[in-house]
Amino acid sequence: MLHNSLTGTLSSSHQPPTHVYKYSPLTQKCQPDRYTIRLLHLLPADDDNAPLRCRLVEKGYNDHWSHQVHPEYHALSYTWGEPIFPEVLDVLSNNVGTLSRSVGVIYITKNLQSALKHLRQKDGPMLLWVDAICINQADVTERNSQVSNMPKIYKKASSTIVWLGDESDHRDARLCMNFFKDLHELAASAGEDRPSASWRNRFEINRLVADFLGENRSKMVYFLERPWFRRRWIVQEVVLAKSVAMHCGAWKIDWDTFHLAMFELFESGQEIFTLDHRTTMRTMTGVRSGSRTITAVRNLGVAVKKQLPLDTLVEFSSFQCIDPRDRLYALYGVIKLWSPRQITMQLSELNNIDYSLPTERVFTNFATELLQIDARDLGPMASKYCLVTHALQLAGAFRHGNGKEDRLSGKIPSWVIDWTATLCFEPLQHSPKAGTAFKAHANNDAVQFIPARDNPSLLVMVGLPFDIVTRTIPLDISPMLLTDTVHKAKASLSKFLSQVAGCVEGDWYGPTAEHLIEALATSLVANWDHTPGNSYFGQDPRFIRDFLEQLRHQQYHLPEMLHKWPAYVELMAITMRGRSLILTAKGYMGIAARDVEAGDIRAAGYTSHCGENGAVVVPDCFDYRDVRYSYDVAMLAQDPSLYNSFRLVSDAYVHGLMKGEALEIMGRDGENLPLKILPIA
Residue 88 belongs to what domain range? Predict the structure, then answer.
């Protein structure tokens, strides 16, 4: 989040001052529940063009204020932008008798200068907390401590002031902010005591939105593309605030007015916004049912339904930051707010912000702690998913847009989520844990790390190498995302099916004894596991049976079904985004990430193959034996390079293998399918 203001680029338009302001160290806290911050006393000026002058005053606060105590400062939420610091803030002395003497200047960005000039009062000082000024950016130790305190700083400020920027050449600030006010007044005019007028009021709101967008679409687009809306730190800055005031140029509105406008624009039904614009509007409101959006949480406060840290990080993965470590650090405040306390107590990383650590270490440390959370502390959330499985699924799903694996240039293990990447596909929903989980050992954790926990590189798990990918077949889903191009969707699916037909023999799918096309149609939607609850197939299980029955009556001509079943087309496109069909050595089919290759299970330096009895041969892997598991892991720890390790590639749906069938096969074939100790690098 934070730049070092002394290392940025300076403008040649300002002569170097006699000296740069030298920060004094903050007083060390003498009690564990106290913290100290600097407050910016922005001095008044009658002339808008007068130089910015301030005092920096140290202030101590207690963690456990009563609700009646209100600090006197406002916290600023704004965008740093490029690390270019052409403007200066003159810092005056705090000593009595020398109050007007300058003790140095702080270089600031042009956007921050503009914000301070707009917020500066004419008749008295304005007390603010501004990260770039109130934190000594050159002191990493102080920076770590103050960033850790930021959730408390924003939570206990009188208000959070959002600075969206100056008026632009597009004149979007005046038009959009006034439109937001008009919209809010119109919505409020119906009143709760006039329910009979609500339908008329709704028509007026729709007309106002349509008229404004018809004349000023470009202005609204420019407004929504202001950098603040994509800044990752705004999540905690707005969520934790007592109140929020939105400033843009000379105009100001409160958060409720802004939220209502975003809601109405999202619901306008006019296809004039890009996906990025709609994501901005959706995230700023409570539009998405069941989501943890900013406004939904602000309105619910501490009573908000708890969620796991991974859900929070995925929810706001589209928000950006400059320092990649802030992909985690910027959300630690809301993770602590939303996650059950028994879980956050196990994540020491949440209280250990450290900018001296490289990004790969920050990501790996967080993943290590996350994977070791005691499942008994998940409570009701344990029924949602297995935390270890979900974390590993996300490690495969977060990828860089060029299709090539970056993994921070090879510096983080494959089992660690690369939060700098993009979520390229949703993790698959597997069958209930009771049907698929291997209870391999009772006295050891599900995962172990090698070597030492403070610098892990290998994740050690117990599992069954069951099958090998022999062929991958991609499916172009882009035509299926366009409602007016059914013929293109049919052509894409027909090309895909002809490739499948050339790779398999017979009409029947051996593992489930159903027609091959029926098994394929089910695989392409991962056994309907991604079906939204409010979609057609989510309404009643009979609709799925109707689809499969009609597929049989159509002689399994799947492309001919597309125009009759648009709900299936949509579901297939959602499920297959970023994925390909896979075929295996044992005759299974399924779906996995697009970069899965023939020959996976991927073993470093070896080619896995099926043995005589159908077991997958994986050289140099320990067979799992309960009585010697700890000894074998210790052997791995002594020299991990001597043993075969794997790289996590993707989660997968394999048709006929997701409802506990592997356990049945293992029980039937016994010693031919032994469990293995699987090191994942």
Answer: 34-163
